[in-house]
């Protein structure tokens, strides 16, 4: 047993309250090193009367480690615990005081979860577990009102550039809500809507006004009402890391320098405020001089921005915020942000833009979720032939173990966004590979999101090409692909197990890019079979039960002498399920 690989701490993702009566425990061990891990649990005030052993399950693995997990429901909301680790004839006990070979004398020296306080339990919005999101960049979605177009506006569908306009607006969104309903969408994430000189609106100049080229506040309210009437939630983009150069307080700083009453609103490194040797004398988003960075620790800035967040929650009954460049804003601000937003709407869904491990923001006091770019990167690398099943299962296991379960259930999963090449382009135009990615997206843990136009076959490389105009001519849309998206969305929405069930790989071999994985809960069992190669194959796996059927065709499928054999076309897949009696 490699003792140096053992790891557990009684906090964060390793020991946490999942709900008001359940504590999740996790422990890490060397890959394929242990045969059994047992959680030894009890109440520290009545250990003998409450003692219970829980065999732990190997929930995931990565290249170097196994991760074991168990759900414990303590009788009195308190928990003292230790771990019994078994490898062959060797047994080790892991306690808060360290490792030992002799059985412990609990509860002394045990780990402790002191008490499940309801106020401390990390609660995520339940509706986000049911959501299928659709990301809309309004300027490129649909032009519903040419009268509010900026001048000049290029012909709809012309090549996008970094600075051209096409006239998309909120009326265009309103006109096409039925497309989203027909697709199965029940949540929209809008990129920024507020007044800004750019088409993308990430350089805001007025946080309380809808950009006049999109419409006005009354129209946004009308869109929100129409969405809510159709069962569609609305999430807006909050750009609180920085503003636009034309934002009035920053203009005041440009005019009055250090004598401006707004000088403390920004991170000014040197006066006068200017571009010096190609670099701004003030902090910005990246090095873009037209996007000065807010000093969110400044009380006036904080009051202003939190007022904006509260205003839109109340004004349009907003269902949540997506937070731009969230990792570059101080944690104190986000804690106050969460309190303000959740006070007005306890079910508001807060999504941070953080591109890497985000645990610091996902402990219940800041965000509910983050944009899961690592998910997209690993899924696309695998289905584009960049790794085998063994390594893919390792990568996904590592991602699952990054966060507590309640976060995994609402992690914001997408395959592309306005900041990445489009999905069809990233898979080299091969719709078979695209479909494998989409099947994985909709049968995986978390909250899936589609970028507008993916469902009808829009292509596009990196920005600005990925921000093409939506194609509304049915003759130019890939209708077969659209039907495929509808089918997968409907399947996910029909079955709770695909939204909240356990995820686990059943087969993922070294040197083999074909995989089998499962989603499982107390009432239903799904298995997904994928051939990630350009040759037909047969995937086989031991399965004893015979009551399986194809989730898409309804066809009955049975194993042969305890082995399920599934024939798959090149880049083919099959989804099977059975009811658990």
TrEMBL record:
UniProt keyword Transport present: no
Transmembrane segments: none
InterPro entries found in the cross-reference section: GH, GH13_cat_dom, Glyco_hydro_13_lg-like_dom, Glyco_hydro_b, Ig-like_fold, Malt_amylase-like_C, O16G_dom_2
GO molecular function: hydrolase activity, hydrolyzing O-glycosyl compounds
Keywords: Glycosidase, Hydrolase
SMART domains, per database record: Aamy (SM00642)
Pfam families: Alpha-amylase, Alpha-amylase_N, Malt_amylase_C
Domain Glycosyl hydrolase family 13 catalytic residues, every copy: 135-492
Gene Ontology BP annotations: carbohydrate metabolic process
UniProt record similarity statement: Belongs to the glycosyl hydrolase 13 family.
Protein's name according to its UniProt entry: Alpha-glycosidase
Species, as recorded: Paenibacillus lutimineralis
């Amino acid at each position: 047993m490699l003792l140096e690989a053992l790891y557990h701490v009684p906090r964060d993702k390793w020991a946490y309250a999942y709900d008001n009566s359940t504590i999740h425990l996790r422990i890490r061990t060397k890959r394929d090193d242990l045969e059994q891990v047992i959680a030894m649990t009890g109440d520290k005030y009545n250990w003998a009367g409450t003692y219970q052993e829980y065999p732990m399950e190997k929930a995931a693995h990565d290249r170097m480690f196994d991760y074991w997990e168990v759900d414990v429901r303590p009788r009195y909301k308190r928990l003292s615990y230790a771990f019994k680790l078994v490898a062959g004839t060797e047994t080790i006990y892991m306690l808060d005081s360290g490792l030992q070979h002799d059985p412990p004398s609990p509860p002394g020296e045990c780990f402790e979860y002191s008490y499940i306080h309801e106020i401390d339990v990390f609660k995520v919005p339940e509706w986000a577990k049911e959501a299928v999101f659709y990301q809309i960049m309004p300027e490129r979605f649909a032009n519903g009102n040419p009268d509010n177009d900026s001048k000049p506006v290029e012909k709809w569908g012309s090549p996008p550039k970094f600075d051209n306009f096409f006239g998309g607006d909120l009326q265009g969104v309103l006109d096409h809500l039925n497309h989203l309903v027909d697709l199965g969408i029940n949540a929209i994430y809008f990129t920024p809507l507020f007044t800004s000189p750019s088409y993308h609106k990430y350089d805001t100049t007025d946080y309380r006004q809808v950009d006049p080229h999109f419409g006005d506040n009354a129209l946004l309210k009308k869109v929100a009402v129409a969405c809510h009437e159709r069962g569609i939630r609305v999430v807006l983009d909050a750009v609180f890391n920085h503003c636009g150069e034309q934002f009035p307080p920053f203009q005041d700083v440009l005019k009055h320098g250090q004598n401006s009453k707004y000088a403390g609103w920004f991170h000014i490194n040197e006066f006068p405020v200017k571009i010096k040797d190609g670099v701004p004398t003030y902090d910005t988003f990246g090095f873009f001089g037209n996007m000065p960075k807010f000093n969110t620790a400044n009380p006036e800035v904080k009051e202003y921005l939190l007022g904006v967040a509260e205003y839109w929650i109340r004004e349009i009954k907003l269902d949540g915020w997506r937070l731009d460049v969230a990792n570059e804003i101080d944690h104190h601000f986000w804690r106050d942000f969460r309190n303000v937003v959740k006070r007005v709407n306890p079910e508001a869904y807060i999504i941070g833009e953080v591109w890497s491990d985000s645990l610091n923001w996902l402990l219940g006091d800041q965000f509910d979720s983050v944009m899961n770019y690592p998910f997209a990167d690993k899924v696309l690398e695998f289905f584009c032939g960049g790794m085998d099943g063994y390594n893919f299962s390792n990568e996904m296991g590592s991602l699952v173990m990054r966060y507590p379960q309640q976060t995994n259930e609402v992690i914001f999963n997408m395959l592309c966004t306005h900041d990445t090449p489009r999905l069809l382009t990233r898979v080299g135009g091969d719709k078979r590979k695209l479909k494998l990615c989409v099947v994985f997206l909709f049968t995986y843990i978390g909250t899936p999101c589609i970028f507008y136009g993916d469902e009808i076959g829009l292509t596009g490389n990196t920005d600005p090409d990925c921000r093409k105009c939506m194609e509304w001519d049915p003759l130019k849309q890939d209708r077969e692909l659209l039907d495929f998206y509808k089918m997968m969305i409907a399947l996910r929405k029909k079955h709770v197990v695909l939204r909240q069930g356990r995820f686990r790989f059943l087969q993922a071999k070294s040197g083999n890019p074909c995989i089998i994985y499962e989603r499982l809960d107390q009432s239903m069992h799904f298995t997904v079979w994928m051939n990630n190669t350009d040759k037909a194959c047969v995937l086989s796996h031991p399965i004893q039960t015979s009551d399986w059927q194809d989730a898409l065709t309804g066809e009955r499928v049975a194993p042969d002498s305890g082995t399920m054999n599934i024939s798959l076309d090149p880049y083919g897949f099959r989804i099977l399920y059975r009811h658990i009696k």
